[in-house]
Write a structure and sequence with these properties.
By secondary structure, this protein is an alpha/beta fold. The protein has 11 helices and 13 strands. The radius of gyration is 21 Å and the shape is globular.
Length: about 325
């Protein structure tokens, strides 16, 4: 493992046993993140992005069967951790900003209680005065105005942008080395969205932490990511540096995702692409390439055999076209 590598995941599989059959939500996912790097995990809803992140921090129900060849977090193999060990890892080493801050924050408790709980959990002997001092400091760090006053607020008394900043503060309070940001700007207007992304970049630079950004929006990816892993139907279909993916997407799914967002490749007045159909049911994935039923470039073999992974330099893609006809 590279000295600067903070997270390595090899062949992660997360399955759910249901009365209808086995749901293969995450089906052989591998990636790594270096120190101070942002990897964007991109794809439509239902592709397995959030389940991937929850598998890493062990926050899935007991019905989930999580297996992997390797999960290394800050040099520690975490797959075999006990529940207590996993709890100690969460927050201190790897932390997460969850979707929808209004539902992630407890509506019946003030901000001071929810933020203070994080400090008390990781430092049981900490005094009330120290908790308050650190809580004010972290709110100030994430750009919450009048932090001492905001500590006495309930979540519903804050705007969406402020709630998201509080959530970021809670996630960063224990100084984690890896931050998982799950759709961190969903439901925020464009101006606030830009502010939150700038905040994350600034905090990353100050703290030297790594970020796993989970999103469906290539517009967000273009503003913050260093590398991109495109996920579809439980698998990563393409991975590479941000600039390379944007300039020359090799997988048809990647290309269509980029062309469906205004202002990136499609200029004002241009035609946005749409992706026909929907993500397949994880109970019944297609036999060949899982994207083949929706792919405008599909060959006969695509519906019969899963494509092999092709690695060229520091890029990888799972597509029979290998980027040739997909350009």
């Amino acid at each position: 493992m590279h000295d600067e590598e903070l997270l390595r995941v090899e062949n992660l599989r997360t399955y759910f046993n249901t009365p209808e059959g086995v749901v293969k939500a995450v089906d052989g996912v591998s990636f790594s993140i270096g120190k101070g790097e942002t990897l964007a995990l991109v794809g439509e809803s239902g592709c397995g992005k959030t389940v991937t992140s929850l598998s890493l921090i062990r926050l899935l129900p007991n019905s989930a069967q999580v297996e992997a060849d390797r999960v290394m977090i800050d040099g520690k193999e975490s797959l075999g951790f006990s529940a207590e060990q996993a709890r100690a890892l969460r927050g201190k080493t790897i932390s997460m900003i969850f979707q929808e801050p209004m539902t992630s924050l407890n509506p019946v408790y003030r901000i001071d209680k929810q933020l203070g709980e994080v400090f008390r959990l990781h430092e049981p002997g900490i005094s009330k005065a120290e908790v308050r001092e650190r809580s004010i400091a972290i709110l100030k760090k994430v750009g919450v105005p009048n932090p001492a006053e905001r500590l006495r607020s309930y979540p519903h008394e804050l705007s969406g942008g402020l709630r998201q900043r509080v959530m970021i503060g809670i996630s960063l309070a224990p100084n984690p080395k890896v931050l998982i940001a799950d759709e961190p700007t969903t439901a925020l207007d464009v101006t606030i969205q830009a502010q939150i992304l700038e905040l994350l970049k600034s905090l990353q630079k100050d703290m030297g932490m790594s970020i796993l950004l989970i999103t469906h929006d290539f517009g967000v990816v273009s503003q913050i990511a260093h590398r991109v892993a495109v996920m579809y139907a439980g698998k990563i279909v393409e991975e590479g540096k941000l600039e390379e993916i944007f300039e020359d997407p090799w997988h048809p799914y990647t290309k269509l995702l980029i062309l469906s967002i205004p202002g990136i490749k499609v200029t004002r007045g241009g035609r946005l692409e749409s992706i026909a159909g929907a993500v397949p049911n994880p109970l019944r994935f297609p036999e060949g390439c899982r994207f083949a039923p929706r792919c405008p470039y599909a060959l006969d073999i695509c519906s019969k055999e899963p494509p092999p992974e092709t690695v060229i330099g520091d890029r990888r893609v799972s597509c029979y076209l290998k980027g040739g006809e997909a350009k």
